[in-house]
């Protein structure tokens, strides 16, 4: 079992920045990729970004390309999501996710964190 714990959410004004962290614990060797999803009120959960533990190529949803950056620290079993140029439409609960396969982590990951709220005011 892998456990994921997000942190770093909060309230920020439009144009501001936040950095989310996701610490993985437990059987982290069973995961090869980590990702971020978000869910806004009344909307479905959507993919945001993903990265492999062993690779450097990140993957992003079109809506966040050029503004968000996903990175990882293997020594800390932690994945980050740096969010710059935040917009009110970025307001959502952000979830960390993990899976053994990159394709799965961008669609239907096996493991989820509890989520952290990000609110962007206009």
The share of residues in extended strands comes to over 45%
Rg over alpha carbons: 13 Å
Helix content: under 10%
- Number of helices in the DSSP assignment: 1
Structural class: mainly beta
Order of helices and strands: EEEEEEEEEHEE
Largest sheet: 7 strands, mixed
Q: In angstroms, what separates the terminal alpha carbons?
A: 40 Å
* Rough outline: globular
Tell me how many strands there are.
11
Mean pLDDT rating? 95
Give a verbal description of the structure.
The structure is a single chain. With 122 residues, this protein is mainly β. The chain is 3% helix and 52% strand. The protein contains one helix and eleven strands; from the N terminus they run E-E-E-E-E-E-E-E-E-H-E-E. The strands form two sheets. Strands 2, 4, 5, 6, 9, 10 and 11 form a seven-stranded mixed β-sheet that branches. A four-stranded antiparallel β-sheet has the order 1-3-8-7, with no helix packed on it. A hairpin with a 4-residue loop joins strand 7 (68-73) and strand 8 (78-83). It is globular. The model has no long low-confidence stretch (mean pLDDT 95).
Summed up:
The protein has 122 residues and is mostly beta strands.
Task: List the topology elements.
Blueprint: E1 2-7, E2 10-13, E3 18-26, E4 33-39, E5 46-52, E6 59-60, E7 68-73, E8 78-83, E9 92-99, H1 102-105, E10 111-112, E11 116-121
Parallel strand pairs: 2-11
Antiparallel strand pairs: 1-3, 3-8, 4-5, 4-9, 5-6, 7-8, 9-10, 9-11
């Amino acid at each position: 079992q892998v456990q994921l714990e997000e942190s770093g959410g909060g309230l920020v004004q439009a144009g501001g920045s936040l950095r989310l962290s996701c610490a993985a614990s437990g059987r982290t060797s069973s995961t090869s990729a980590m990702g971020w999803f978000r869910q806004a009120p009344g909307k479905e959960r959507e993919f945001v970004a993903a990265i492999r533990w062993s690779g450097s190529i990140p993957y992003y949803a079109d809506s966040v390309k050029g503004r968000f950056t996903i990175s990882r620290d293997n020594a800390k079993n932690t994945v980050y999501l740096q969010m710059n140029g935040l917009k009110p439409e970025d307001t959502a609960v952000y979830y960390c996710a993990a899976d053994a396969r990159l394709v799965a982590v961008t669609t239907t990951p096996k493991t989820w964190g509890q989520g952290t709220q990000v609110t962007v005011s206009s």
